[in-house]
Amino acid sequence: MKTRVLYLIRHGRSDLDNDDFSSTPRGDQYDPPLAAEGRDQAERLARRLLQMDPPAAIVSSPLRRARETALAYANKAGIGVGYDMDLTEAFIGDWENRTFEEILGGDEALLHSFRNHEAFWRHAPGSEDLKAFRARVLAGVERALSEHPEGNVYVFCHGGVVNAYVAPLLRLEQEMFFLPENTSISVIGIDGARREVRFLNDVRHLTEPQLFEDA
Fold first, then answer.
1. For the chain, does the N or the C end have fewer beta carbons within 10 angstroms?
2. What is the average pLDDT across 20-27?
3. Among 57, 67, 111, 116, residue whose Cα is nearest residue 87
4. pTM of the model
């Protein structure tokens, strides 16, 4: 069987001055659009993707920052986008739309965890359970693959979603084991039921954009 590829693509930088929320099955979730920088990142990403073989399908989180990143490419490529609520970012309850300063301020235990690379998102009041989060992300990604059994699949999503799908493949328990950059591409080889991590956090379209300009 020919190996195909799953691309997990994080959204561009969000407009954190925006206060929009959207209703999700887990509660009201922070849902900002892309910032100006994020739109530029999405355009650079699109130029890169347009020089690759087109995917069999594009599936995205319905949250605006992921949706806008996906459409920056899909509209140019003439490919439709499917949306799956299971690909939304982890719900962090009372910490939605709060800055690190607000979350960590005055809490020495959380500050210690943050400074020492220890998991702390699970401490958010009302947050989504890690096992439940990983289970829904797995369901969303595998559904995209099963519904499109031939060809490559692009999944536009979030940093937590990338971690949730990749960490079990590497047998890691940590809820966040790396921090994906905005518009980063992580690559998973798909061969039947086999999943192989090939590349994480590729942002060469941002660091070396000249490589992806039209000839």
1. C
2. 94
3. 67
4. 0.95
